[in-house]
Design goal:
Blueprint lengths: L16 H8 L14 E4 L16 H6 L6 E4 L3 E5 L3 E3 L4 E4 L10 E4 L6 E4 L4 E9 L4 E6 L5 E9 L13 E5 L3 E9 L11 E6 L2 E13 L5 E6 L4 E7 L2 E3 L7 E5 L4 E7 L6 E5 L2 E2 L15 E3 L4 E4 L50 E6 L4 E2 L4 E8 L5 E7 L5 E2 L4 E3 L5 E11 L4 E10 L7
Parallel strand pairs: 1-2, 2-5, 3-6, 4-7, 5-8, 6-8, 7-9, 8-10, 9-11, 10-12, 11-13, 12-14, 13-15, 14-16, 14-17, 15-18, 16-19, 18-20, 19-21, 25-31
Antiparallel strand pairs: 22-23, 24-26, 26-29, 27-28, 27-30, 30-31
Length: about 450
């Protein structure tokens, strides 16, 4: 089966303007003051010729005229890119003037039939932006030699099948090289042939590869990621950690295709996917549930409305690895990457439940008289913890504690003072102990 032979699926709902605002975390309001960074400046209504902070130009002029290794700073708002692809190259970095402002990231809207935004070549980068397009290829492309980068980018493709031109809709992201991290790639388009994958890495007689770190690759009707190598000597390589791959409709989360003579290699771990369709002639792709990968589906807040933040109870919370290379420090919302006990899987970080610091409840409900001649003592007790099970140990005087249950009886006690202690420990390591002291009296001799 070739890349153009994938099955038809049901059409998803399109993402509304309000949902894009929710996704981006954007508030309305005037532009904030620039941060005084050297480089070109752009604003949604910019018309300046010099692209300065005081007189910003339009985004295309700012990017195209940027010098080698020069930054391009974007004021907040919505940018219309028109019908031509925006190419970020020359080791330029494109990012907001103030990425931590409450206005959220700039929104780049494109009507380009090809790739909406391209990040080309080593050390060229795009950060903290939302891309919305109806591209027949992808909203975001990383390509070129070296390591182009995109981080904290939400790339959304909302295209639909064109019955006049027979053009299909494209993907959220395409990778030919580089690093994509802390980002969302959403295939939100409609197509009778089942395109609009979250991510695609495929080519014909070419060597392609990419690194994904903390990415959510989601499709309403395609695959979470599509990997392909075609021709007689194609090679596609993927390195992925902490990634959610989720396909839509009847499609697999991961799809792999390849011709004889070409290879597909996917090193995927600490990621979430429950289905793999591998029809490549020569491939190395992990099975669903292998290594440290998850099978249980993620729980998103409102995916139909563009909110892919993880909801409480999602298995992806605190389930990633912090030992991989190329990990980012911030999530797609620019929150610290670790909010709970460990890094999450996916583009967003969730605080998760607070640590359990509450000790179990322990009560001794029955024991011997405080002064008694009886050489036998029976104790009844209860131990419970709101967070789960507890481990109970009992101890008499200075003897080592041992596991026990209620009731607990001690026999052949010697006269003198004794102390019984029962301890409960919960799964978080919290402990609670209750003690009971009494005295065994010597028995009086008769006569």
């Amino acid at each position: 089966m070739k890349w153009f032979e994938r099955r038809a699926r049901c059409a998803p709902a399109k993402l509304s303007a309000s949902a894009i605002i929710l996704l981006a975390g954007v508030a309305t309001g005037p532009a904030v003051a620039a941060a005084g960074v050297t480089g070109n400046y752009a604003s949604p209504n910019g018309s300046g010729a010099d692209c300065t902070e005081q007189s910003p130009c339009d985004i295309r002029t700012a990017v195209d005229s940027a010098g080698f290794e020069e930054d391009v700073k974007l004021f907040p708002g919505s940018y219309e890119l028109g019908s031509q692809s925006l190419a970020i190259d020359n080791q330029n970095d494109v990012s907001p003037v103030d990425p931590d402002a409450s206005f959220g990231p700039p929104i780049l809207r494109s009507s380009a039939p090809g790739f909406a935004v391209q990040v080309v070549g080593d050390d060229s980068s795009l950060r903290d932006a939302v891309i919305v397009s109806a591209s027949t290829q992808a909203s975001l492309l990383l390509t070129g030699s070296g390591t182009p980068r995109a981080e904290r980018v939400a790339a959304i493709n909302q295209g639909s099948f064109d019955t006049n031109t027979q053009q299909e809709t494209g993907n959220g992201c395409n990778l030919q090289s580089g690093v994509l991290r802390d980002s969302l790639c959403w295939g939100n388009g409609t197509s009778p042939s089942g395109f609009s994958d979250g991510i695609e890495i495929s080519g014909y007689s070419s060597t392609l590869g990419g690194t994904l770190r903390n990415v959510t690759a989601y499709s309403d009707q395609g695959s979470g990621i599509y990997l392909g190598a075609f021709g007689s000597d194609g090679s596609t390589v993927l390195d992925a950690r902490n990634v959610i791959f989720q396909g839509g409709g009847s499609e697999s989360d991961i799809q792999v295709f390849g011709d004889s003579g070409s290879t597909v290699e996917a090193d995927i771990d600490y990621s979430n996917f429950d289905s793999v369709l591998d029809l490549a002639a020569d491939s190395e792709v992990p099975a669903a549930g292998s290594a440290s990968n998850q099978l249980a589906p993620p729980v998103f807040s409102e995916p139909a409305n563009g909110d892919f933040r993880q909801a409480a109870g999602s298995p992806t919370i605190d389930a990633g690895t912090g030992a991989a290379s190329e990990l980012g420090m911030l999530d797609l919302d620019r929150h610290d990457r670790i909010q709970g006990q460990a890094i999450d899987i996916g583009a967003y970080e969730t605080a998760g439940p607070p640590p359990d610091t509450t000790a179990p409840a322990v009560r001794i409900t029955k024991g011997p008289a405080k002064r008694t001649t009886r050489r036998v003592a029976t104790f009844r007790f209860t131990a419970s913890d709101d967070a789960g099970d507890v481990i109970i140990t009992c101890r008499l005087d200075g003897k080592p504690p041992r596991g026990c249950s209620s009731p607990k009886t001690y026999r052949n006690l010697k006269p003198g003072r004794h102390t019984f202690a029962v301890t409960a420990s919960d799964e978080a390591g919290n402990t609670a102990t209750k003690r009971y002291a009494w005295k065994v009296l010597k028995r009086k001799r008769r006569g």
